[in-house]
């Protein structure tokens, strides 16, 4: 038989009673960056809001999104929500399409000619948004 009288028991409580090492507290900018990054990837969006140039907005739940068509050569994106159709025309819409397919795009917004001129050539810009509403069933 082995004598274990010289060994000390290891208790789980020791890791809690030991002094905690000091931790780095982020400054306000670091905390905001971390929050925005975590918020962006934290969950899927529940609705997609369509913002028109005149200030009107229409929102659809992602649960009603039935089909997404992207026409590369035309710079056009078609979104089919039940009986409604949203057409977005612009440039560099591939990233918007990808985000919509992942249910992560929170809104799409119609831009102006002035905004288009201020953006880089590889920036996303929506020139025109068209909404065609279907017949609602009672």
Q: How are the elements arranged and paired?
A:
Elements lengths: L13 H4 L10 H15 L4 E5 L5 E5 L3 E7 L4 E6 L2 E8 L2 H8 L5 E3 L3 H6 L6 E8 L6
Parallel strand pairs: 1-6
Antiparallel strand pairs: 1-2, 3-4, 4-5, 5-7
Summarize the structure.
This protein has 138 residues and is an alpha+beta fold. The chain has helices spanning 14-17, 28-42, 94-101, 113-118, and strands at residues 47-51, 57-61, 65-71, 76-81, 84-91, 107-109, 125-132. The chain has a domain at 45-132.
Description:
It is a single chain. The protein contains four helices and seven strands, in the order ααβββββαβαβ. The mean pLDDT is 82. The protein has helices at 14-17, 28-42, 94-101, 113-118; strands at 47-51, 57-61, 65-71, 76-81, 84-91, 107-109, 125-132. It has a domain at 45-132. The longest helix has 15 residues, at 28-42. Helices cover 24% and strands 30% of the residues. The chain has a four-stranded antiparallel sheet with strand order 3-4-5-7. A three-stranded mixed sheet has the order 2-1-6, with no helix packed on it.
């Amino acid at each position: 038989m082995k004598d274990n009288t010289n060994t000390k028991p290891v208790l789980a409580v020791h890791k809690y009673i030991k002094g905690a090492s000091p931790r780095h507290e982020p400054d306000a900018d670091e905390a905001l960056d971390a929050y925005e990054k975590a918020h962006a990837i934290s969950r899927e969006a529940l609705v997609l809001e369509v913002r028109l140039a005149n200030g009107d907005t229409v929102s659809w739940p992602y649960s009603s999104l039935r089909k997404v068509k992207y026409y590369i050569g035309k710079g056009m994106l078609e979104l089919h929500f039940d009986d409604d159709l949203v057409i977005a025309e612009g440039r560099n819409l591939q990233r918007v399409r990808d985000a919509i397919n992942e249910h992560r795009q929170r809104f799409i917004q119609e831009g102006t000619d002035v905004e288009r001129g201020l953006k880089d050539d590889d920036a996303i810009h929506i020139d025109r948004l068209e909404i065609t509403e279907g017949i609602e069933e009672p």
